Amino acid sequence: MVAIERGNIGDVDAVTDMWVDLAEGQREFGSHLFADGNRATVREAIARNAVGDGLLVAREKREDDRTEIVGFVTFGVESDGYDQDVTRGVVRNIYVEPDRRGDGIGSALLDAAETRLAERGADAVSLDVMADNEDARRFYRRHGYAPHRVELEKSVESDTLTKE
């Protein structure tokens, strides 16, 4: 059975390993983040999320009564200092072990994060997804997410930089 629980400092290393797996997988879709190269920075961020109640984990109790983490979500209320007409919650990362995808764990993690964000006053929730990651985009569409802002990118090596 899987339980969604607040993550704690003892979970930081396991969640960091999962984040590295997430980042490695996102490179397939064009992410520029180095996975293992950001391990120390991400570990610190996950520790801050654990202390600040911005980390939820999916724990599965095994037959030997031990538990293991099979997914996580990090989130928080946006705090960029701009006045806005909504208070936005942000889902920063969500990950489920590949062999557990399709079991409802990602949906349970997302729902729990959205609930926590609403309790903290969020009127809307945003998240980023790689444009070419159709599975993730489909998952978020099923949960009511729609495009709000589109980020565009091009290489500075492109010859269109010199054209007017």
Short descriptors:
single chain; 164 residues; alpha+beta; Aminopeptidase; five-stranded mixed sheet; globular
Average pLDDT: 94
Given helix and strand content, the structural type is alpha+beta
Give the H and E element order: EHHEEEHEH
The description of the largest β-sheet is:
5 strands, mixed
What do you see in this structure?
The chain is of the alpha+beta class and 164 residues long. The chain has a single domain (2-145), classed as Aminopeptidase, CATH 3.40.630.30. 32% of the residues lie in helices and 22% in strands. The chain has 4 helices and 5 strands; from the N terminus they run βααβββαβα. The chain has helices at residues 12-27, 39-51, 105-119, 134-142; strands spanning 2-6, 55-61, 67-77, 88-96, 124-127. Strands 1-2-3-4-5 form a 5-stranded mixed beta sheet. A hairpin with a 5-residue loop joins β2 and β3. The protein is globular, with a radius of gyration of 17 Å.
Concise synopsis of the structure shown:
The chain is an alpha+beta fold. The chain has four helices and five strands; from the N terminus they run βααβββαβα. The model has no long low-confidence stretch (mean pLDDT 94).
Topology:
Blueprint: E1 2-6, H1 12-27, H2 39-51, E2 55-61, E3 67-77, E4 88-96, H3 105-119, E5 124-127, H4 134-142
Parallel strand pairs: 4-5
Antiparallel strand pairs: 1-2, 2-3, 3-4
Helix pairs in contact: 1-2
